[in-house]
Amino acid sequence: MVSCEPEGNRWKVVLDKTAFYPTSGGQPHDLGRLGDAPVVEVVDVGGEAVGADHHIVHYTSAELRVGPVHGQVDWARRIDHMQQHTAQHLLSAAFIELFGFQTVSFHLGRELSTIDLNAPSVVARHLEEAERRTNDIIFEDRPVVIRFGTAEELAEAGIRKKVEREGILRAIEIEGFDRQPCGGTHLARTGQAGLLFIRKLERRRDLSRVEYMAGYRALAAARSDFALLTEAGSLLSCGVADVPAGIAKLMGERREQVATAKRIEERLALLEARALLREHDESRGAPFADASATDARMVVAAVPEATAGYLGLLAARLAAVNNVVALLVSRDQGHVVFAQSKGLSSDLGAALRECLKEFGGKGGGSRDFAQGSLPNPAEADAFLARAAQLLKP
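Above: the chain's sequence. Below: its structure in token form.
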């Protein structure tokens, strides 16, 4: 170890040589330990070092003494990154071989990895064929070899990406399939990638982003997917293969039930609106059929077990009658809806905001229709009384 200096709440450690990989080229850094100190980040700072490895800075969570130190890379993390990165080379090469789609960027994430293809019209067939071709190369267990040479030498060898850098470069060669300049960590043979499968396709302007998994990640995802399907089959009382049909059946039944419930709600809202108007007119000693009264009829009600949707529907039914102002609150949930017949002069949006402000609620709307929520449904009666007082002519 050359040096160990404090930097914030971490220690900046420089070694004369290292096995730790720094964040670079879409691949995250290694983790592990230097002596007893956990390594939390590895960075290639470049520039002023004596040797190439001196460019690598290790950040640890504890101080180390200058001198010889034993490093230990988190191998589970390293092998995972090697599987994803090697699989990326294979997948990118497959897209080029089959369709001429060039990879323009790569990201190795904690759970998913992605490549961006310079191809805006990727379809399911492209994904299936590229995935199959990649797995063919994996199952053939071809050697993965590190090559060194100048840009000119690598170009003559047939690398698939032009390199502008000078000096001796590092390239990864997958026997008979791909040569690509790369400084990342890779497997010794393609078979060590285990399996690759594509999870998702996403359009990104003129690019297509492909999410994939390989190796142990693919195994874990397959196990998780199967567990979910098994649980779904158990809930649906069917086999795993019948889950899609079972879900489709449930969705069809749900659509029918929702449509039926909506029709029933509309009928209930109409009947309840008539009942509320009748109660109002009877309490005033006026006949229900008298819709030509010059004074607006104010219907004030705390409706039990009313959802926000039903309350709005009920308010709309009341406001469809001439000369009606409806002030409604859901007694159980605190939903609030104010509505009035067209042509009336009250500003219900302003009135609702003022009342809700006094009771700590939020809401708003137009002159004829406004809605909000009351934080404490127990205050429904007091709230309605205040609103009726505010809107009384």
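Residues 47-54, 286-294 have pLDDT under 50 and may be disordered.
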